[in-house]
Amino acid sequence: MRLSRALSVLLVPSVLFAAEKPFTMLTDDLLAKLPEAQRTEWTAYIAKSKAFAAEEHRLLDEERTKAEAKPAPGNRAEFEFDSDTPAEWFASAENQKLANIVISYQTPTGGWSKAVDYTKGPRQPGTHWTSQKGDAWHYCGTFDNRTTTEHIKFLAGVFTATKRDDVKAALMKGLDYVFAAQYPNGGWPQNYPVERGYHEAITLNDDAMIHVLEVLHDLAEGDNHFAFADAALKQRAQAAFDQGIACIAAMQVRIDDQPTVWCAQHHPLTLEPVKARAKEPPSLSGGESANLVKFLMRSGPTTPEVVAIIESALKWFDAHRLTGLRKTKNDQGKTDYIADPASTAVLWARFYDLQTAKPIFAGADDGIVYHTFQEMAAKNKVAYDFFSTRPAELLGKELPRWRKRLEKGK
C-alpha cells in the first residue's frame, strides 16, 4: 500500500529517535512555496502571533520590576464542567469568586494556560500566567486539555446568569483569541501565540480542535449559554466553523487514493500527519479519529462532502476491528493484552501504520515503533492507552442516530 501524498520525510522508522533539538514546522522554505495570496496570509498570521508573544513578555517583565517573579500555582486537574449545567449554578457566590480568579489568569492575548490551581486565589502581579517550570512560556495560551475553550464556556455561563460587564469583556476577549489563533487554512495550533515544535501542528490530540469547534458551533447557534451572541458574532463563528470543517476534510488521510481517518496531529502547512511526543508517531489515529467522526455525525454539516467523509471513516473503522484479544495483568501487575480466541472484546489500536494500516506501538522511553504491544511494553513504561473502544460507539448507537439525522436533512 502507498500513501497518495509524499510523506517520506515525516514517517517514523522502527529505530531509536536521536535527541531532538527544538524545531519548527512553519519554516521559511515551506512558506516560500505557497502561492502568493496564501503566503501573504500566513506571513501576516505569524507576524501577529509573534507580536502577541512579544507583548506578553513585555507586560510580565514590567510587572516583575516591582513584584516577585514566580510561576502560577500548578494543579493537574482539568478545568471542566458539563455543557448542560444550568445557569443558576453559575450564579452562586462560589462561582462568582471563581470567575474573578479565572479572569485574573487570562493571558494578555486572551487565552488561558493549563494546569493552573485556581483555589490559590487571583493572580498577583509578577506571577506568570502558566505554571510550567522548565520553559517559562510553555503552554502560555493553549487549547490542550480543554483549556481556553472550557474557560470560555464557563464565562458564558456566568455572564448568562449575572450579566456582569467584566465577565462579558473577558468572554469576548477569549472568543477573539479563538478567532485569532485559527490558521489561514482553518485549523488550530495546540498553543497560541504559536509555540515551536509539535505544538504548531493542527491538533486533534485530546480532541483540542473538536473542543474549539464545539464552542464555535454553540456560538453560531446561540446554544448552551451563548444566546447573548448578536448576528455579527454568530456569522463570524459560523465562518470560522465552516473553515474548520473544510480543514478537517482536507486532512483526511488517503492511502492508495482511498479515504481513511486522521492523525492526532497534522502539519500546519502541508496537512500531512506528523509526530508529537516519542509515543505519538505520525499514524492513523483510532481514538482521536473516532471522537472527530462522532462530532461530525452529531454537529457537522450534512453536505455531500461531509457525509462522504463520515461514511468513508465508518467503513475504515469497520474494516480495522481487532478481535481475539483480552485485557489482563501480567506477572508484574502491568496491563497486558493477550491472544484469546474466546474473547468477545472488540478493540481498535490507538495508532495504525500510515502505509500498511496495521497497529503500531511507540515506546515513550525509547521512541522505537514496535509491531506488538508486548514488545513495546517490555522496554518502556506504559502510562498510555494503546487500544480504544471508542469506534464501537460510532458503529453501534451513533450509526442509527446518524441515519435518522440524514433522513431529516438536518
Give your account of this protein's structure.
By secondary structure, this protein is mainly α. The protein has helices spanning 28-32, 36-63, 87-90, 93-104, 149-162, 165-181, 208-221, 231-251, 286-299, 304-319, 373-379, 390-408; strands spanning 202-203, 254-255, 258-259, 265-266, 284-285, 325-329, 335-339, 348-349, 351-352, 361-362, 369-370, 387-388. Mean pLDDT is 91; it is low at 1-20.
Tags for this model:
12 helices, disordered N terminus, two-stranded antiparallel ribbon, about 400 residues, 12 strands, mainly alpha, single chain, about 40% helix
Q: Tally of extended strands?
A: 12
Largest sheet: 2 strands, antiparallel
Strand content: 5-15%
Q: What string gives the helices and strands in order?
A: HHHHHHEHHEEEEHHEEEEEEHEH
Distance between the termini: 37 Å
Q: Determine the fraction of residues in helical runs and give it as a percent range.
A: 40-55%
Given the structure, what is the number of helices?
12
Evaluate the radius of gyration.
22 Å
Order of strands in the sheet with the most strands? 1-4
Shape: globular
Low confidence ranges: 1-20
Overall mean pLDDT stands at 91
Structural class: mainly alpha
